[in-house]
Design a protein that fits this description.
Length: 284
């Protein structure tokens, strides 16, 4: 692969064998290189096909304007996140994280701080992602000598969550609010607090995260195409008899979601929510 344009020491633009324009990222991939040189493919950590991106030259603009040091930092955080979560993350994470962290660093240098109003929810609902955020602010301290507040770890976590479900960062705020509403219904229904460190709580929150994504991206659903006959599901009939309180709690959640979000739960969703609540109660 031959370099067409060098953006910085860690990012170059190339054309592949099929003539597609790609942005290649990797530590030192552009260092000491000139246009026309070949790249060391062992240094490549990420490839972006510009023609497949919604705003391709936004990435080019960011890579050209952000210091190499910050790009390396963000790449390290993304690689750490992939390793810790063992899951695919949307490529947009590179862009959003570089844009966010570079701005946060400059703000911190000037003595300004941004309060994260969802910090408690992030710590409780997105524990793994928050730990990645803590790793991120630790790296910032080591490389820039800046002590960032926990709020920043929370913001980094939200970008990670956004990349997990390919959502816009602003939608994640709504989904976080959705999770808060549902967990409150469960808590007040059973009049107790649950162990937020338990595996069952983690699985419940993970389910709600992706459930919230479906709710917010299927608002056009209505009773005719999404609401089904609850009585038809044999397993649900068994579950609602054996775990009546969990089922009744699910019906409260169903009513709340239908009223607030105009989304009608089908029988499978009612079953899954009930099972998650039942497991959550066992592990409380």
């Amino acid at each position: 692969m031959v370099i067409n344009k060098i953006l910085n020491n860690n990012a170059v633009i190339i054309f592949d064998d099929k003539g597609k324009e790609l942005v290649i990222m990797g530590k030192g991939v552009g260092y000491g290189k000139r246009n026309g040189d070949t790249i060391d493919q062992t240094k490549v950590t990420k490839k972006f096909i510009l023609s497949s991106m919604e705003y391709p030259y936004h990435l080019v603009e960011i890579l050209s304007s952000i210091p190499t040091k910050c790009i390396e930092l963000c790449d390290d955080i993304v690689q750490y996140a992939k390793q810790k979560l063992s899951m695919k993350l949307d490529d947009s994470l590179y862009i959003s994280l570089m844009d966010h962290i570079s701005t946060s660093i400059e703000r911190q240098k000037e003595g300004g701080q941004l309060r994260n109003k969802l910090l408690w929810e992030i710590k409780n609902f997105y524990k793994s992602e928050y730990e990645i955020g803590l790793y991120g602010i630790d790296m910032i301290k080591k490389r820039y000598g800046l002590t960032m507040p926990e709020d920043e770890a929370g913001f980094i976590a939200l970008h990670i969550v956004s990349a997990e479900i390919s959502n816009d960062i602003h939608d994640i705020y709504e989904i976080t609010g959705f999770i808060q509403n549902i967990t409150n219904i469960v808590k007040y229904h059973f009049k107790c607090n649950f162990d937020t460190n338990s595996h069952n709580y983690y699985y419940f929150i993970t389910y709600l995260k992706f459930f919230g994504h479906r709710v917010f991206y299927k608002k056009s659903n209505n009773k005719s195409n999404n609401k089904t006959n609850i009585e038809n599901n044999d397993l649900l009939n068994i579950i609602k008899e054996q775990y009546k309180e969990s089922y009744l709690c699910t019906l409260k959640i169903k009513q709340f979601i239908e009223k607030k979000y105009n989304y009608y739960l089908d029988e499978d969703e009612i079953l899954y929510v009930t099972i998650h609540i039942m497991k959550l109660r066992k592990g409380k």
